[in-house]
């Protein structure tokens, strides 16, 4: 990768399925950008403990903290706390303290972050929106929640707003008074059925929830469209992160095919943890290799070639110059030093591009 | 661990009873550790002893093949879909046409977290009670999600004080808390995060439901081809073969460390699944893996 992406983007969003090294990649990109002189904040979601410690975000705080680096980089990190981000949002849009209290105490609201899929993603975007106007940073690198489908991230605002605008329950409440609007017999029967099947508590909790949110959907909607604009800007770059397994590659291909619907495109694909290239076992000098040494090289060569074969499918979505292979290290990533090591690989354009290794 | 050879981990024993002694076996692990691989291998092993096996995937889109095996059947129970069909079956189908049943379903599942998961378990319980299979292997959703799932029935007995849900949750709770009916196999890879998550999962399982897993599968283990003595004996190590050997040795060492940590902390019988040099396991790979694992499982109780 040339430094262009790191120098010119204002926002970099890392997307991929769980377990492919998204958080490490985001940290490494942030590190290299800071090294190139930018003021960077990395927004992480749920880093492994050692990685979190390395970045100094072991405690959930929701406000950026500066990472201590020997070269005094302008590098910050924040770990997303979806619950308090949602609370802040409610605080912002609530028309009165009473409305706010009502929402905070509603059981549906309390369950929302953990149980409505897409809410975490939406809150990550919200955090992004908030930090985008923070003068301290000129680049934000965002790690996204470990969804099964990366596209969830882009669908999140639509989902949450769809939920808040639920037509059926909106029918039940009157716009201004806290009483049930007279409803049709059919609706009443339906309510009775719901109560019978899942309990009347659900109906009253839901009615209370939608009553409490009354008047706030507009604020949420506007906010969501601002986020959408931010994502569509030229200075926002999408980086897809994959592993070497078929399912992570499938997901990347699927994501790229759907991105068009949002008028967005993939800037870069990073494939992590590829078995390194050890070179050919040439004849000279290797005549008397112990059997297990030879067998091991054969095994790794076979593994690497299977991985490269799989990854070559990604040529469908990016030019080979925009696909970076990151080799599996022989140790785990858990320190700034190792994050830097990955970062160096990412910007070393000489040897690691897929076009130089694919047969 | 200075001086330890990579393959010096002491592995606790695993018996056939640990795996197949209950009618329901739940496969639990962090996303990406290979739960489906373990389900496939166990299904293969189970049918070798003549058992009729039903594999249930807890997420839709799971790749599974019945391998042309008449003893094997596969289906999936995705919680969201199960909830919608439950609502439809209970007279809410009309909502589907008028106002999108998924909208109602998402409100209900947010109002009663875990209701969809409870319904999945209820279906599994139904299968357990019928004679459709000798063994039901449940390829559960990723572990964080599964913990919520098992915490559900208890919570639900409080919430849904009446109606069909209460009966469901009581019956599911009975199944979960009966080690004669349901067993749990944990899956991890020999890496830091998955191992730590397995340890947490084990603690939470016992705290929330009293379930004690019986076995730990460690997936994607590099073959320990390289011993320290072989590396030491080399004169010129800056060759492809020796660089590869050093890499494998270091990776294998690291894997053993985490495997050892898991073995010590969990105190479970441990089964290694070797890493196959491929990006997707086909049926013949599964058969080979089952062959490799079979000798590790002791017959008898």
Explained architecture:
The complex is a heterodimer of chains A (359) and B (301). Chain A is of the alpha/beta class and 359 residues long. Chain A is built from 15 helices and 8 strands. Chain A has 2 domains: 224 residues, Rossmann fold; 85 residues, no CATH class. The C terminus of chain A is likely disordered. Chain B is an alpha/beta fold and 301 residues long. Chain B has 11 helices and 9 strands. In chain B, the strands form 2 sheets. A 7-stranded parallel beta sheet of chain B has the order 4-3-5-2-6-7-8, with helices on both faces. Chain B has a two-stranded parallel ribbon with strand order 1-9. The N terminus of chain B is likely disordered. The chains are: A alpha/beta (359), B alpha/beta (301). Chains A and B meet through helix 6, helix 9, helix 10, helix 11 and helix 13 of A and helix 3, helix 4, helix 8 and helix 10 of B.
Element layout with pairings:
The complex is a heterodimer of chains A (359) and B (301).
Chain A: H1 4-8, E1 11-15, H2 22-35, E2 40-44, H3 49-55, E3 65-66, E4 75-79, H4 82-93, H5 97-105, H6 107-115, H7 119-132, E5 139-143, H8 152-164, H9 167-172, H10 185-198, H11 200-213, H12 217-232, E6 236-242, H13 246-259, E7 266-274, H14 291-311, E8 323-327, H15 336-347
Parallel strand pairs in A: 1-5, 1-6, 2-4, 2-5, 6-7, 7-8
Antiparallel strand pairs in A: 3-4
Helix pairs in contact in A: 2-15, 4-7, 5-11, 7-8, 7-12, 8-12, 10-11
Chain B: E1 14-15, H1 16-20, E2 24-29, H2 35-48, E3 53-57, E4 72-76, H3 79-99, H4 101-111, H5 115-129, E5 135-139, H6 143-159, H7 164-176, E6 182-189, H8 192-209, E7 215-221, H9 228-232, H10 240-266, E8 269-274, H11 283-293, E9 297-298
Parallel strand pairs in B: 1-9, 2-5, 2-6, 3-4, 3-5, 6-7, 7-8
Helix pairs in contact in B: 2-11, 3-4, 3-5, 5-6, 5-7, 6-7, 6-8, 8-10
């Amino acid at each position: 990768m040339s430094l262009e992406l790191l120098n010119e983007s204002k926002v970099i969003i890392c997307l991929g399925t769980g377990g492919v090294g998204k958080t490490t990649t985001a940290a490494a990109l942030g590190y290299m950008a800071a090294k190139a002189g930018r003021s960077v904040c990395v927004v992480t979601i749920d880093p492994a403990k050692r990685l979190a410690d390395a970045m100094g975000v072991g405690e959930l705080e929701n406000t950026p903290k500066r990472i201590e680096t020997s070269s005094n980089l302008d590098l910050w990190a924040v770990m997303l706390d979806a619950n308090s981000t949602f609370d802040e949002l409610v605080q912002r849009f609530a028309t009165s303290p009473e409305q706010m209290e009502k929402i905070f105490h509603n059981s549906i609201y309390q369950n929302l972050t953990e149980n409505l899929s897409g809410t975490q993603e939406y809150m990550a975007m919200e955090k992004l929106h908030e930090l985008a106007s923070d003068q301290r940073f000129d680049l934000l690198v965002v790690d996204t929640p470990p969804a099964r489908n990366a596209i969830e991230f882009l669908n999140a605002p639509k989902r949450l707003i769809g939920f808040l605008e639920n037509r059926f329950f909106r029918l039940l409440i009157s716009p201004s008074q806290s009483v049930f609007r007279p409803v049709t017999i059919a609706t009443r029967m339906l309510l009775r059925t719901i109560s019978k099947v899942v309990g009347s508590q659900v109906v009253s909790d839901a009615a209370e929830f939608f009553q409490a949110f009354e008047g706030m959907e507009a604020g949420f909607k506007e906010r969501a469209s601002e986020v959408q604009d931010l994502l569509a800007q030229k200075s926002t770059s999408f980086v897809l992160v994959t592993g070497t397994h078929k399912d992570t590659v499938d997901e990347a291909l699927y994501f790229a095919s759907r991105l068009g619907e949002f008028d967005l495109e993939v800037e870069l694909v990073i494939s992590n943890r590829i078995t390194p290239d050890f070179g050919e076992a040439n004849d000279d000098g290797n005549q008397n290799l112990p059997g297990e040494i030879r067998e091991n090289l054969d095994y790794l060569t076979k593994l690497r070639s299977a991985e490269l074969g799989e990854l070559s499918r990604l040529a469908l979505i990016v030019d080979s110059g925009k696909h970076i292979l990151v080799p599996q290290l022989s140790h785990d990533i858990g320190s700034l030093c190792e994050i830097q090591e990955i970062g160096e690989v990412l910007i070393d354009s000489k040897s690691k591009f897929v076009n130089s290794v694919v047969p | 661990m200075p001086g330890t050879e990579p393959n010096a981990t002491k592995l606790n024993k695993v018996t056939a009873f640990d795996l197949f002694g209950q009618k329901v076996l739940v496969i639990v692990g962090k996303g990406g550790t290979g739960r489906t691989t373990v389900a496939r291998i166990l299904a293969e092993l189970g049918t070798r002893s003549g058992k009729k096996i039903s594999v249930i995937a807890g997420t839709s889109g799971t790749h599974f093949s019945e391998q042309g095996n008449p003893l094997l059947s596969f289906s999936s129970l995705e919680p969201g879909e199960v909830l919608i069909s439950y609502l439809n079956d209970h007279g809410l189908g009309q909502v589907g046409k008028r106002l999108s049943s998924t909208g109602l379903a998402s409100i209900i599942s947010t109002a009663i977290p875990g209701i969809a998961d409870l319904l999945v378990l209820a279906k599994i319980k139904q299968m357990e009670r019928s004679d459709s299979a000798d063994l039901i292997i449940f390829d559960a959703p990723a572990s964080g999600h599964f913990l919520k799932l098992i915490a559900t029935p208890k919570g639900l007995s409080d919430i849904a004080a009446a109606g069909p849900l209460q009966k469901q949750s009581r019956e599911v709770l009975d199944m979960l808390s009966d080690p004669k009916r349901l067993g749990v196999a944990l899956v991890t890879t020999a890496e830091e995060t998955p191992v730590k998550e397995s340890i947490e999962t084990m603690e939470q399982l016992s705290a929330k439901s009293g379930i004690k897993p019986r076995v730990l599968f460690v997936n994607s283990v590099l073959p320990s081809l390289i011993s320290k003595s072989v590396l030491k004996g080399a004169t010129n190590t800056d060759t492809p073969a020796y660089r590869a050997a050093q890499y494998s040795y270091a990776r294998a060492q690291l894997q053993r460390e985490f495997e050892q940590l898991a073995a010590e902390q969990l105190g479970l019988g441990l089964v290694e699944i070797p890493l196959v040099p491929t990006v997707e396991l086909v049926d013949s790979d599964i058969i080979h893996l089952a062959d490799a694992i079979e000798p590790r499982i002791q017959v008898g109780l």
